[in-house]
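Model: Ready when you are.
Researcher: Fold this.
Model:
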Amino acid sequence: MSALVRSSVGSLCAAARAVIPSIWRGKYFSSGDEPAENNPVTPMLRHLMYKIKSTGPITVAEYMKEVLTNPAKGYYVYRDMLGEKGDFITSPEISQIFGELLGIWFISEWMAAGKSVAFQLVELGPGRGTLVGDILRVFSQLGSVLKNCDISIHLVEVSQKLSEIQALTLTEEKVPLERDAGSPVYMKGVTKSGIPISWYRDLQDVPKGYSFYLAHEFFDVLPVHKFQKTPQGWREVFIDVDPQVSDKLRFVLAPCATPAAAFIQHDETRDHVEVCPDAGVIIQELSQRIALTGGAALIADYGHDGTKTDTFRGFCGHKLHDVLIAPGTADLTADVDFSYLRRMAQGKVASLGPIKQQTFLKNMGIDVRLKVLLDKSDEPSMRQQLLHGYDMLMNPEKMGERFNFFALLPHQRLHGGRHQMNACQSKPSAFPVAGFSELAWQ
């Protein structure tokens, strides 16, 4: 949104002061009644209040971007928020099996597409590096399969803190890291298995070439615009300073249409929607790259297929946290709309899914892998840890149905090569993409 549009919308919002209807407030949202002692004035809150008072109410997307990635105060920039001592934990931190199965998925796709002489493994938002570390262990164990393939690792990471942790996790200590803060490739090194690894702040800086892309819990933290249907049409949700309470934020509705409303489908039936233009830009970039040079993208995240409405929430200390309280101290997230990702691929590539994590991992052989590890383990504590991790990943009440898998592949991967099709067929007759059932073909 341009500064001029934002300023004019801000002035109108400030004049209208139309508070979000109370029916929209839920367990993830501020009711406006929290006591002052539960709403500490963080540096980020002071920054946001100054910004709002200067230019008017801001969109939820701008709020998320500031809170999470502001270069000076952003939640992701200088802290390690992962693990038991952090604010949330991810699947790779729970069980090694998760990353191992994803490593098998990439090797399966590499083989199915013809065993190229080289490929890049690109991860968006790699956390602590645990996931790519598990994948690299699988690559090493299957070295005889990959021995003639030139592999390189490319990590897209905006957090200075996490990039340092990733380097400690993945790189060979005896090989000094190359650092250049002003370069698109701000860090380079060599993994413990001898594979070159590079760090970037933006996907567009990653070299184009035959690549496999991985995004695990990446899209859910991209900024979303929120919209409420009103008798006057769609109105965007903004964040404003509460005039009744000092040092407090609240949700308001824009009194007129805003530019981001263009992202809403004309036939939308929901009364509240969240749209993520940044996700669309990244999907378009991935689709163009895959269509041009081959490879695939595997996306795993919280999400839905265009059915949910109000999913914006915060996490602090592994508990739900009011998104407007103490900004900068908690993670902010919104479920991924996979139907939107599919539309943004615009037919350049084929899409598969979304399918539930439970289904994907079962199709990938998680039960067989668990049995192998249990048979090898003599320690009761290790066996208990393996079973606990399996339950966390697969239980529908935990991660099994809350996470979804979604993939992008070249059209020729599905309609040519060893998957030859008759003219009347609409999907491959054999060997569907690993992890995805035939019901997931789109």
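Researcher: Now this one.
Model:
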Amino acid sequence: MRDDKAWKHRKETGGQPGQRKAVLFAGTTEGRLLAAYLTGLGCRTVVCVATEYGRDVLEQDGLAGGTDGKGPDDRLLDIRQGRLDQKSMEGLLEEVRPGMVIDATHPYAAEVSENIRRACTAFPHILFIRCLRRESGAWDNPVIRVPDVRAAVQWLAGQEGNILVTTGVKELSAFCSLPDYRKRIYARVLPSVESVDMCRTLGYEGRHIIAMQGPFSMEMNLALLREFKCRFLVTKDGGKTGGMEEKLEASRAAGVRTLLIDRPKSAGGISLEDVKKQIKEWMEHER
């Protein structure tokens, strides 16, 4: 989603100092791709990630070393790690003075996205864009749609059998209310110390913590479902980029029931390719 008022303001006023700087809120595949795209165009970019794991992935992709050759501090990419609230985001934007802010956080990070949007309203010169991956759409195999994690837990409370949970570590505490959750739940989380520690704090141990980096193939999903004799899969709609199709194919092949947590209501957004087009247009306009 592009802030057209900001776009119009920039054309009328000629922009503000630091107009070829961008702030990118990442933590997703789209975020990593956009970081590479921005630096490839020569745009100085501050990339914000919440965790050490997010920073490590960017650095593993070789995105921390790009330069523009214009001075001693010539890095094109500046990675900032840490969870930010709206006030902290406003402070960051005041410091960096970017011409563009891109929200490429997870489709389910509704609170974070809203904080980013609100922080940008204090800076009328900023062009704000929300990159939102497409939903997966219709599927051959039926899914049980629930509005949130709490509803998923309530539905599962009346069922028996093991459960593969792929919703992320933040939602795991909700599943602790299920009978015998330590035996029934197999939690797939990011391979970070923070994620594993949180799992253990909640009572998950050993084989019940699957710390792996996705997205995963159909074969890997199927192997996990069969290995742990799961009857249910709980997931979010991460779209094609997040491996949603592979999850559903695996659940069908394994004969398990899939609980799909609906995306939160959002203010909308545009695809990765459309974001790239707007970045290029913005960069050409600012030259």
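Researcher: Key takeaway?
Model: Residues 6-19, 65-73 have pLDDT under 50 and may be disordered.
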